[in-house]
Amino acid sequence: MSIIEPQRPSTGSESRFRIAFEQAGVGMAIQDINAEDTHWLHVNQKLCDILGYDSKDLLQKSLLDLVPRHDQKGLLDYYQKLLGGETPQAARECQYIRKDGKIIWGRLTLSMADGFEGTSGSIISIIEDITEQKKLEVKLLYLAHYDDLTGLPNRVMFSDRLNQTLALAQRNEWTCGIMIIGLDRFKFINDTRGYGIGDALLREIAGRLSSALRTEDVPGRLGGEDFAVILNKVSTPQDAMTVAQKLISTIAQPVVINSEEMFLSANIGIALYPANGTDQNALIGNATVAMQRSREDGKNTFQFYNAEMNARAHEKLQLANQLHRALDNDEFILHYQPKIAVGTRKVSGVEALLRWQRPGAGLVPPYQFIPLLEDTGLMGPVTEW
Predict the structure, then answer these.
(1) Of the candidates 276, 142, 153, 273, which has an alpha carbon nearest to the alpha carbon of residue 209?
(2) Which residues, in sequence order, are CB contacts of 226 under 8 Å at separation 6+?
């Protein structure tokens, strides 16, 4: 908003201006350019409301009295541009100190006006309270980089920090690493006890990760129950092993929610730069493969990535893809195993055992494809078959 009057306003226009000044929905103040002090001559009620002063107290203040020290130089620069004729109007956002000491944000517009109420020249200050807008901006910025539930870096922020770590490791020729942490039993607890309990568990685990890690390491939540850690500098693989063992032990401690004790276990996959990848996609992918291999070995274990794991993971993916077509292609068969009553030695029934006749590979052992049926959601349709 700008008010520029090249000629002294008439009495009628002054009257209209005063009405607009007093009833404005933004804070307004008038200052005499040539006065020896910088105090305001007039302030409206809206400005009093914004800054928490009554008009008598506020007229003893200048704009510089109401901004934090770090904002004063920038504000003076705007005054100089205005008074030096570089611009007829200057606008900026800055903070203000209310009478109660609370800091608020305001959008300030300074404008030149000629001869208001007997002055030879005036500066009109317009202040709009944008505190809530600033809070929203901060919140949106936070949500763009941090997980709202746990407060840990989200996937975007984690990716950025990992890129920085890799660049530093490359420049200094040292080793860094990444851990992917999968929680066991979380889905069961979340489904049976409710999302409120599940959220409380995730917050607790996030806090434990943060407190258990080295200062230089960075935890993050990639989504769901999957967490990750950037190992900033790893002198030897033993360093990574020590961190993994500490995290597993920390997560395994009971969690008490609503007086109920709950237990989680974790599996961790570890990939190191540069041995297991030189970019974040390779490292995250390989650490995930290692975590999945760790799950096959049991709960509360960790695994370092190696090339053999990748081959196994690729084979597992192929099996899963072919399983999706196996039912439609009539590739499943049943073998019947008799049940013998010990007392009479007679057949009392049979068990139906599922077998998969994989094209070009023969019968696939049940231990290879039954877990995949569960993971891919095909167990229900195959059971009905």
Answers:
(1) 153
(2) 180, 181, 182, 183
Q: To which residue do tokens 């002198």 refer?
A: 235
User: ω before 381 within 30° of 0 (cis)?
Assistant: no
pTM for the structure as a whole: 0.61
Contact 109, 123 (CB under 8 A): no
**Residue 14 phi, psi (nearest 5):** -65, -40
Structure tokens that stand for 378 in this block = 């095909």
Give the list of residues 6+ apart from residue 75 with CB closer than 8 angstroms, or none. Answer: 63, 64, 67, 92, 94, 108
Determine contact, residues 281/155, Cβ cutoff 8 Å. Answer: no
Which residue in 281, 150, 286, 270 sits closest to 210, CA to CA? 150
Q: Which of 203, 287, 204 is nearest to 240 (CA)?
A: 287
**Nearest CA-CA partner of 98 in 61, 51, 48, 54:** 51
Q: Are 146 and 254 in contact (CB under 8 A)?
A: no
Measured distance CA(151)–CA(154) in Å, rounded: 8
33 three-class SS:
coil
Which amino acid, one-letter code, is at 272?
L
Burial state string for 252-271 with b = 16 or more CB within 10 A and e = fewer than 16: eeebeeeeeebebbbbbbbb
Q: What is the pLDDT along the chain (385 residues), one digit of tens a residue?
A: 434 343 444 556 667 777 778 878 899 988 877 655 567 888 999 999 999 999 899 988 888 889 898 888 888 887 777 777 777 677 888 899 999 999 999 998 888 776 555 555 778 889 999 999 999 998 888 888 999 999 999 999 999 999 999 999 999 999 999 999 999 888 888 888 888 999 999 999 999 999 999 889 999 999 888 899 999 989 888 889 899 999 999 999 999 988 888 889 999 999 999 989 999 999 999 999 899 888 888 888 898 988 665 556 566 667 777 777 887 888 888 888 899 988 888 888 888 888 888 887 788 778 777 877 777 777 888 888 8
- What are the backbone dihedrals phi and psi of residue 177, each rounded to the nearest 5 degrees, phi first? -160, 175
